[in-house]
Amino acid sequence: MISLQDLTFSYRKGHLVLNNLQLHFEPGRIYGLLGKNGAGKSSLLYNICGLLYPQAGQCQVMGFNPAKRQPAFLRQVYLLPEAFHLPDVDIDQYVRLYAPFYPGFDSAAFDRHLDVFEVPRRQQLHALSHGQQKKVLISFALATTARILIMDEPTNGLDIPSKRQFRKVIAGCLREDQCMIISTHQVKDLDSLIDEVLILENGRIILKEPVTRITEKLSFRQVLSLEETEAPLYSEGALKGYAIVAVNRREEHSRLDMEMFFNAVMVEKEKILPLFTR
Ligand SMILES: Nc1ncnc2c1ncn2[C@@H]1O[C@H](COP(=O)(O)OP(=O)(O)OP(=O)(O)O)[C@@H](O)[C@H]1O
């Protein structure tokens, strides 16, 4: 559905932001794009949407070259950017203005999502808080039913109950022909939603693995003392004892803790990445 071949991108000469990326994204999946500040996550997303253009290599999205920004492409792609500015209209006017760009726009779904988020319906957008505005945009994004949904830090600025609402709204909303890429630092908000994890570092994808494969290779556990377990790959002090990431030697079933996983990869790359070489 999305295919990047040898994609290289930089804002200025001599400073590669995306370095020779080979990447494929399939429909029916939610991808979590992780990386430290400045790793190149937004730049990658903007290349996929055609808002930035590669210096070398290819980017193909649903058979289109995004850089051409053809209407048939734009109708099927929605980017929720990290920072946004909304016009001073009310929600209904906003829908009347922007929904026509998306032929598959589902007004009933939009209303349902707004209800879950408990957004006051009759307000001017400028009278809403930043978090409420974001909820309008998340609801709008999902209601477009665009085949490619890209969200840059969608849960930034959402309060704790809203993060739960976000998970509720997203879960079960993706169709088999849609693909969602979520770039985030707020990994705890999303670890139950993500099908596949990508980690970007210094312009390269250092890991791209389905959650099922991560938990097949690694186990995520709490232990009272580090002596009671064979040397973990990574550990962090927890309320009672330690949270650990260990090699999953006994085919244990554990739930991915994406924050622990990301930290473990950052600190113990040499130990963890080889577990995933094919
Ligand atoms: N408009 C720009 N002009 C020049 N350099 C830029 C521009 N935008 C980003 N960069 C640089 O490109 C690199 C990647 O930035 P990008 O915003 O893609 O990273 P990111 O992973 O999304 O970061 P964050 O997690 O902080 O949002 C950084 O080194 C950044 O300084």
From TrEMBL:
SUPFAM superfamilies: P-loop containing nucleoside triphosphate hydrolases. Coiled coil: none annotated. This is ABC transporter ATP-binding protein. Residues 2-227 form the ABC transporter domain. The keyword Repeat does not apply. Pfam families: ABC_tran. It comes from the Bacteria. The keyword Nucleotide-binding applies. Keywords: ATP-binding, Nucleotide-binding, Transport. It comes from Chitinophaga alhagiae. GO terms for molecular function: ATP binding.
